[in-house]
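Hey, I was hoping to borrow your eyes for a little while. A protein chain has come my way and I'm curious about its shape. Take your time with it, there's no hurry, and the full record follows here:
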Amino acid sequence: MEKITAVFKHSLLILTWLVLWRLSVFTEYAPHASIWFPPAGFTFTCFLLLRWQALPTMFIACVLSTGWESLVFSDGRSLETLLIAGSQFAAMHCLVYGVSANVLRGSIDRISHHNLYAPVMRFLLTVATASLVMATAGVLLLFGGPQLESFLATSLAWWIGDMSGILVLVPVFIGIVNRIYPRRGLLSALNYQPKTENRFSSFAGKLVFCWALMVAVVVLADYYQSSEIACLIFFLTLPQMWIVFTESPLRMAVSLAMLSFLLALLVSMLGVSEQAYIYQVAINVIACSAFFAMSVPALVADNRELHVEAKTDFLTKAVMRQHFIALTEQHLKQAKRYGHQTTLLLFDVDKFKQINDRFGHLAGDEVLRELASLVRSKIRSSDIFGRFGGDEFMLLLPQTSIENGFSVAESIRRGIAELTFSESELAVSCSFGIARVDECEGFQRAFDEADRQLLKAKREGRNQTALRFAEK
């Protein structure tokens, strides 16, 4: 059954490759000349995800396409000639894109921290180099090389066509091949998602806007036979940036693929030849710009995560001491303005050192994690929970009287006493000190007062809450 499934999957890859090849033929603006070459992108993707397991599949697809091409153009070549030509093309195609994709994959896998810039830069350089090698080798070996009258023009068209097919379509093809081989993950950085994603109708509107501009430029350039008007296609970079910065990477990839397909289709329908190179180069420029621009929001998201990590305790997810103090000072300004009461809780784990000494530091870490989780379940989203250091924690309760703060502390204290841990003999309790912040003229004095009350709670037997202003 597994063998049948594997054969089916590889057959599906071959069929997809051939459909893409036929699509490139359908969008040719001249014999053997198309704005893009999607099979190059699909081959690169298969080698990128499947490594050398994709070699037999891609080789067979290339050989079959040579036979199909002979039928399309009715060139009358014999079967032996077709097999030789197909094998030569397949060998070059698979060798160049197989080696380059595997080198890229190995290079990306060695990046310890992905921020998209490094993978994008390596991807662009690899694709440009591989497609240039493929175009040069193909013209030299398959079309007679320098003796070809249009050697430079043919090489250039081949290079840019292959490069367009890879740059524009690889992100989409990664999604397709991952559907067939779901365990072949790649590039954790591409999992980046913006904080919010617009509705599909908004995305569709942006697509239509881009397409309308593209159609206007191509039609006007063809009508007036003007290369100057054709160069306006480069301004499509601007609405594409709009999509990059407001939509997910997946939608960005889809928009690029659809834009390039419609451009290739329109060029083919109009029989454009004079400005074809301009449109080919434009696709590559827009794609490169989009990839680099995609690095920016991903980098911002990455920096945001680092910013949060720098201010958040890794173990307990409570805010760090300095950030807690900064947030408290900001809050106190508002509380003073509106006359709100604010309460500060300071607490720590009773005999925490003995817990570490007896049960080990892993058990101590478990205690701190479970304690922090319990505290978060007992407080409001507006409350500020911080770790002072070691086993000491702080809790700021905005718009809370000291009496209500006492109730919160007692609720947490009782909850901690009921916690269970992996070490069945481990029992934990906490002592609390409370102070009213606004009456203590600032955070530092409130902290000192809460600390005195915490020491009082410990002196009087631990596992209790102490405060100066409690009403008996």
